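S.,

Sequence below, as promised.
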Amino acid sequence: MNPPASAALAAKDFKSDYKPIWCPGCGDYSVLSSVTKALAALGLRPENVAVVSGIGCSSRIPAYTTCYGFHGVHGRSLAAATGLKVARPDLTVLVASGDGDGYSIGGNHFLHACRRNVDLTYIVMDNHVYGMTKGQASPTTEPDWDSKLSPGGSGVREFHPLVIALASGANFVARAFSGDPNGTAAILAEAVRHPGFSFVEVLSPCVTFRPDQRAWKERAHPAPVAPTDDPARAARRIMTDDGFNIGVLYKGNRKPYRGAVPATSTVAELGRRFELQGG
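The prediction came back faster than expected:
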């Protein structure tokens, strides 16, 4: 049950009664905490927020919040979220994904979501591995990462999501680290406030299949430069990035895509548009 409309909300008010079932030490616990902290800091209410996801460890997030949630199919979270936001522009829409769900089967949706610039916040928990399906190399896995499933490494160049997001037209590009939940919450809140498509990569270690990622705590560091609204300057920064710069990298000023659905449309009115005519 949601708290009374007049009550000030805390992070706990955005957490459901379902207990997360991630592995001990998974960074996604911290990301969930950051999401709820950000929603509380923004003064939002659960009934005015929708959390959409696809498939994977990170995509369990909707069930762990008290917001409206949609757990979709693999790689299609952005497609569902785009339709929801265009039809219901009054809702704050967050999308939770992982590096497999978001960059592999969902890679094409990622490109075009950036290009369309609908007012969404896309949170990708990147652990450089397929954790839920037992440790295969993902699009962001280092080509020389040796494992039982990829002896000697995959040999395939890793995907660079921040580069792709900027080149495709994302209006806000940032990186956070799950080991800093308060800092991540602040970045997520800023992403939600910024108009247009906001992309936040969250480095979220999978200590089960990538115990080496415990070292990310020492490697993550604040970005040495302030955010820029110049895509050319942002591109140069990203291309020389070590993968562990934390902070907002790019804040664009593109006008968000609003769609053609009148803001006054009700659910009943939308339903009537899709009714089949007899004959």
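The two ends are 44 Å apart (CA to CA).

Coffee later?
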